[in-house]
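Lay summary. Proteins are chains of building blocks that fold into shapes, and those shapes determine what they do. In this project we predict the shape from the chain. Here is one chain we studied, written as its sequence of building blocks.
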Amino acid sequence: MLMHSFVVIPFFIAVSCVLLYAAIRLLTHEKRTADDLLQDVKVGGITKRWQSAYELSKLLSNPSLYPEGDAFTREMASAFQKSKEDDPRVRQYLALAMGRTGKTVFFEPLTEALPEEKEENLPALIYAVGMLKDPRGAAVLSPFLNHPNTRVRSIACAAIGAIANPSSIDRLKKALYDSEPNVQWGAALGLAKMGNPAGKSIILKMLDREYLSGFPKVDPDEQNQLLLAAIEAAGSLREPELHARLEQLSQTDRNLKIRAFAGEKLK
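And here is the predicted shape, written in a compact code that computers can read:
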């Protein structure tokens, strides 16, 4: 009995210590700042670097969590420049982190890297430039609408649409005839954002679940996101055909969120 107690008591003590340690780690992790994460990106091991860059990309989407002063901005740009030969995930997440700040101070570091960037990193950098919404980005990203990689073309189209510089209207009109549906969708949505109805026929198709179901790689969640984006575009164009489709969706779509959003855009 004594031996049994001797074995069991330390076991529970050990379990308690493990749980306490895990709780401390969790609390510590939750309180990590942008400076902490950036430091881990700079000096951590390979896994810690890309994971910290990922966490940083999420954290910096909240403007209130961006450190005050210019030091962090300089260090962030420096870390990105030095990540060129690092694990691609580090560079990709750092680019997204810079984009999500919405700070145009990161326009130069991102765009200057584009001409010689590795192809696997291009979508993240292009998307980041789009998130900055700097009007200069439309011209910088336009050459990527002709890139041989369909994913690069698709992201470039979405990014140019997000920037919504009227100077890009003709380029987006041309992208409506791209062989890749994703590129067509991005072009139509971008044009609608600028009040141009040139992509109306494509938006009409995007408002049709049967059409979207013809793309096996588009899962149900992605289908709903495409519908929401198309509804937003249709609502901004005020075209009779589009509004007739919105009316139908507001009454018959199987997703209540889609119904409500379509009804809202009809008001």
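What the prediction tells us: Residues 59 and 99 are 12 Å apart (CA to CA).
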